[in-house]
Design a protein that fits this description.
single chain, 343 residues, alpha/beta, 4-stranded parallel sheet, 11 helices
């Protein structure tokens, strides 16, 4: 549809590098809501926030900060002991999150990350980190989610618990500047299907990339752990279809994508010192910006997610859809009865 300028969603996507830097700069005032080293922690959320929770749980535990699980708020195992439950909720009004915080009150310390201080989560949790500078007008969530993860990464970095090979937030923000500016290649903008893959903490990013493409553009997307790709998902890959890997590419996967005629996108890596994209020297396709992944500098995987967000907006607009008004979605899911009860 005709527009007079970029969508709100596109503007918010482009603002992410600045938001990540502000998250790192404001870390000291948010510490009360964040896990303490050694605590047994459960991180919960819904939709995008659940995928952020999965990514953070992997980062925290693999960095030695403490045992960490992630759950959709509606699937939290009541009765399991945790020292802290950390909820991620952009709106601060999501029914399942508020319901869970009420149920666990007094059994564990509770914290929350939110974008809106004028919402019920402010009293539902023991401590709240308000990232109002990353709040969004868009229904489709982009910058709040990545900024929440940037804050959590900055906290691990400050506690010397960032896993080996994971970039600092400052480095990730620099990469995100590139991800915002560089054009996307025809190989991805013209594709009909996308399979997003990740390993460890980047599996949460793969899940989020798939969700973003479905939300904004109604695209045909799937997401899996990278090593699961050959256990069935490869059957959908072929000409005009993309396998997009966040982080390291498992040995032999690039050859498998080439064999079935698909396009490999492998523009990111967790190694801060890497000077070339993962899968160097192999792979049938180009990076998402049209570059050769064997020669281009690898992005931080969170910055690579920014490219997937941009692609979702581009595809939506190419189909005549408004990315600011996605089908069947609202900014927050507020149920008429508490989660888990019958209507």
């Amino acid at each position: 549809m005709p527009t007079t300028g970029p969508s709100r969603t596109a503007v918010e996507i482009a603002s992410q590098p600045a938001c990540w830097r502000e998250a790192a700069d404001t870390l000291p005032r948010h510490r009360a809501a964040l896990p303490v080293r050694g605590e047994r922690v459960a991180v919960v959320g819904c939709g995008t926030s659940w995928f952020v929770a999965q990514a953070y749980a992997q980062l925290r535990e693999s960095g030695g900060h403490g045992e960490t699980d992630a759950f959709a708020a509606s699937e939290f195992p009541l009765g399991r002991d945790y020292d802290r439950i950390l909820a991620i909720t952009r709106s601060g009004t999501t029914t399942e999150v508020l319901d869970l915080l009420a149920k666990v009150r007094g059994t564990a310390v509770t914290g929350a990350l939110t974008a809106d201080p004028a919402t019920p989560v402010m009293t539902a949790a023991d401590a709240v980190a308000v990232l109002d500078f990353a709040d969004e007008e868009s229904v489709v969530q982009t910058r709040f989610a990545t900024t929440a993860l940037a804050l959590l990464r900055a906290h691990l970095e400050a506690e010397d618990a960032l896993p080996a090979g994971v970039r600092t937030v400052a480095q990730a923000a620099e990469d995100a500047e590139r991800a915002v500016a560089e054009p996307l290649a025809d190989a991805v903008t013209d594709a009909e299907q996308f399979t997003f893959l990740g390993t460890g903490w980047t599996y949460g990013l793969a899940l989020e990339a798939g969700l973003k493409m479905r939300e904004a553009a109604g695209a045909w997307t799937e997401a899996y752990p990278a090593m699961e790709y050959r256990h069935g998902p490869i059957s959908i890959t072929g000409p005009g279809r993309v396998a997009w890997v966040f982080g390291p590419v498992p040995a032999g996967l690039a050859d498998d994508v080439a064999r079935v005629g698909g396009t490999l996108v492998a523009d990111s890596d967790s190694d801060a010192d890497s000077g070339a994209g993962p899968g160097s020297g192999s792979g049938p396709g180009s990076g998402a910006d049209g570059s050769d992944p064997s020669t281009s500098a690898a992005l931080d995987p969170l910055a690579d997610l920014v490219r997937a967000q941009r692609l979702a907006v581009l595809l939506a607009e190419a189909q005549g859809q408004d990315p600011d008004r996605p089908r069947n979605l609202t900014r927050s899911v507020v149920l008429s009865v508490p989660a888990g009860e019958d209507a």
